[in-house]
């Protein structure tokens, strides 16, 4: 079951400039910075009420974010939803005909297990499922 909008992921070219911009825009500093080596990405998180904004910058030419920004302008990269049981949601979505980009959940930023739903099966939107590691069964 989807429990809430977890975060919006925004792809940016210059993480420091974007961090300064969003610090001013949101009126608060980020609560976390993290490097995710498996995805070749640096992230910055802002808390906004019950949801978050994640700024993402690729750290290598092979990064999905670097490739995304080579084709598209900075902006929304994905929409992430918190789920109670990521494996159950993956099974439910596969059975419903959605294409998942991950066979198994993987470790993502901000202490989450994650899985992505292909944009072609979600009306052009990259959807991320997130489960807090503490709640993993």
UniProtKB/TrEMBL annotation:
Record domain VOC: where: 4-132
The entry's keywords: Isomerase, Metal-binding
Pfam families: Glyoxalase_4
EC number: 5.1.99.1
Gene Ontology BP term (one): L-methylmalonyl-CoA metabolic process
Enzyme type, top EC level: isomerase
Gene Ontology MF, one: methylmalonyl-CoA epimerase activity
Protein name: Methylmalonyl-CoA epimerase
Native species: Hymenobacter lapidiphilus
Primary gene name: mce
